[in-house]
Design a protein that fits this description.
The protein is an all-alpha fold. The chain is 77% helix and 1% strand. It contains 16 helices and two strands. Strands 1-2 form a two-stranded antiparallel ribbon. A hairpin with a 2-residue loop joins strand 1 and strand 2 (63-64). The protein is flat. The relative contact order is 0.10.
């Protein structure tokens, strides 16, 4: 086997292994734009034909890109399980995109692609703000762990080894001694707790739905997630309404591919609308403050007193309002983690200084 074949195999293996990371915002939007043109007039290709054509564009001289493997996986799912395109694509794109495309497949998928393009433009800044809000605490926690490791392994042991007989240590110095002597136990426990909590939060954001969820949504990142998903949901519902879907029909299509958190809220909204409520009243009666209490009140007032499409009016300002709320909550989270990190640094430096004073006071 020559070097060129080894290179091709390695490249293709890496592309397949990392295919889920291929669908960035830029790639996703480019795919939607191409599919919109290919399934619409004058081309009018079937969706499987359009996907196959896009797949062929992603291979050059036997080198297959990550997107080639995405398209290949989507086509395989559509062939083997009779899944619709929206469902087959669901593991690679946000759930709002999946719901819009899946709903549009029942009528005109070209409209779905134009709708999802518009929806992504409205929500992209919100998603960036949410991702950035989570990235900063993760970075600061890593800094904190490295700092604790350095002090506990490199700095504090130097003081502990030089404690003379008869030395009287202050409480802060005794804490440093414990940190050094029991480092393996407490540090591994701390790392394990942080990892487990991170996994729980990642799982809970789209999946935790029982009655205690509302209390969590007073805190970041759950409140930011609620606003981001809620705004995306209202954008999608408004876009599908403009495309000709009745609200209840759009909700029935969207619920099929929604993740548990959003699915539960759509179910509650549909139950209220089945009792004759409009969308604004249904959101108020749900008592879930979804996507945000003030936004729900605005929607209810516009639905009741405006002759125009209330969702259309609200969506014009929702992106800006939702983004500002997420940024504000992100600042609270950022401030909290910054205070924690710098308080720990201050405590360590103060304790080291006090430790030195304790040793110097020995007669």
């Amino acid at each position: 086997m020559n070097v060129n074949k080894i290179y091709i195999r390695t490249h293709n293996w890496l592309s397949e292994f990392s295919k889920k990371s291929a669908m960035s915002y830029k790639k996703r939007m480019a795919m939607y734009r191409m599919l919109e043109k290919m399934t619409g007039e004058p081309a009018t290709l079937q969706i499987n034909e359009a996907v196959e054509e896009l797949r062929l564009l992603e291979v050059k001289k036997d080198l297959k890109s990550r997107m080639w493997y995405v398209y290949d996986d989507v086509m395989e799912q559509m062939r083997s399980s009779d899944a619709d395109f929206g469902k087959a694509l669901s593991k690679y794109v946000p759930q709002q995109d999946t719901m819009i495309i899946a709903a549009s497949e029942q009528d005109d998928i070209t409209v779905g692609f134009s709708t999802v393009i518009e929806n992504n433009k409205k929500t992209s800044e919100m998603r960036k703000a949410f991702t950035g809000a989570l990235a900063y605490p993760v970075l600061m926690l890593c800094v904190l762990l490295m700092l604790l490791y350095y002090f506990s392994v490199k700095v504090i042991p130097e003081f502990v080894q030089n404690i003379p007989n008869g030395a009287v240590l202050s409480s802060t110095s005794e804490i440093l001694v414990v940190l050094a002597n029991k480092f393996n136990y407490w540090f591994s426990t701390l790392v394990a707790v942080i990892v487990v909590l991170s996994i729980l939060v990642i799982w809970a954001l789209p999946n935790f739905i029982n009655r205690y969820r509302k209390y969590l949504e007073d805190l970041p990142p759950f409140n930011m997630y609620r606003i981001m998903i809620g705004c995306g949901f209202l954008f999608a519902l408004n876009s599908l309404g403009r495309a000709g879907f009745m609200q209840i029909d759009a909700l029935e299509q969207m619920i099929k591919l929604a993740k548990p958190y959003l699915r539960y809220r759509i179910e509650v909204i549909m139950e209220n609308m089945a009792d004759g409520m409009d969308i604004g009243q249904a959101l108020i009666e749900s008592k879930l403050d979804f996507p945000d209490k003030q936004m729900v009140l605005e929607l209810a007032i516009q639905t009741k007193y405006s002759e125009e499409d209330s969702l259309e009016i609200l969506s014009a300002t929702l992106a800006e309002d939702g983004l500002e709320v997420i940024k504000r909550q992100a600042q609270i989270l950022k401030y909290g983690i910054t205070v924690l990190v710098f308080s720990t640094i201050a405590f360590l430096y103060f304790s080291i200084y006090q430790f030195g004073m304790d040793l110097s006071n020995v007669k």
